[in-house]
Amino acid sequence: MLSGMCDFGHAHHHQPYGFLVDTPEIRALIDETQRLTAAIPDAAARVEALRPAFAALLASDGWLPESCAAPDETSRMGGGIGQYALYRADDKSLCLFSLVVPVGASTPVHDHLAWGLVGIYRGRQDETVYRRLDDGSDPARANLEIAKRQELGRGECYTLLPPADDIHYVRTISETPSISIHLLANDTACVWRHKFEPLTGVVTPFRSGYANAPCPPDAE
Ligand SMILES: [Fe+2]
């Protein structure tokens, strides 16, 4: 049975950590991630080993509540983009979330600051990945150039292994909103990360926030 965590009216009845959406499919992926995290110290090898379990979730139907599959007009990312927590580890070492990008909308150019896997569950996305040319020593500026672009449809996924391929944006290119599923080794929406303006080089700190769960106070 689906938990009601994405039904906003009931959100206050639930803990903001753990399985916010509790289904066997989500538990299977989180269990496998925890097993492989303990077994494989190298992040690149671990993410590779996780791909089959992640692909199994993307290939399954019926586990994502419609309330976690809808745009969010109050989005801090803008454009009606919805980010919904499905699982959050108590120690902030892992999260699973859905990202809903309305038709024609784009995310800001952003980073993630943790290893992980991202895959398409519905619709299609165009992903543009940037390469950083400066040394990162100025927190307010970045010199970026486009490293690659790719189109992704259901079941296709890519790896995040910072600093490689960690800065990107995605745009929905289907005639329905796209939904991507993210498994990342932090509490992504609550981490202070960065938005980038590639044309001007301006870097702005941001916390995207979850539509269905609070972040700890700003001090963290
Ligand atoms: Fe992203």
Order of helices and strands: EHHEEEEEEEEEEE
Q: Report the portion of residues in β strands.
A: 25-35%
Proportion of residues in helical segments:
10-25%
Q: What's the end-to-end separation, in Å? A: 34 Å
Please count the beta strands (DSSP E, at least 2 residues each).
12
Unique ligands: fe (ii) ion
Side by side, the strands of the main sheet go: 1-2-3-10-5-8
User: Structural class, from helix and strand content?
Assistant: alpha+beta
What would the principal axes of the Cα set say about the shape? globular
Instruction: Give the uncertain stretches in residue-range form.
Output: 9-13
Q: Mean of the pLDDT scores? A: 92
The main pleated sheet reads as: 6 strands, antiparallel
The number of helical segments is 2
Radius of gyration, in angstroms, nearest whole number? 16 Å
Q: How would you summarize the topology of this molecule?
A:
Elements: E1 18-19, H1 24-39, H2 43-59, E2 82-88, E3 95-101, E4 109-110, E5 116-122, E6 125-132, E7 144-152, E8 157-160, E9 167-172, E10 178-184, E11 193-197, E12 202-206
Antiparallel strand pairs: 1-2, 2-3, 3-10, 4-11, 5-8, 5-10, 6-7, 6-9, 11-12
Helix pairs in contact: 1-2
The structure holds fe (ii) ion.
Residues 110, 112, 168 line the site of fe (ii) ion.
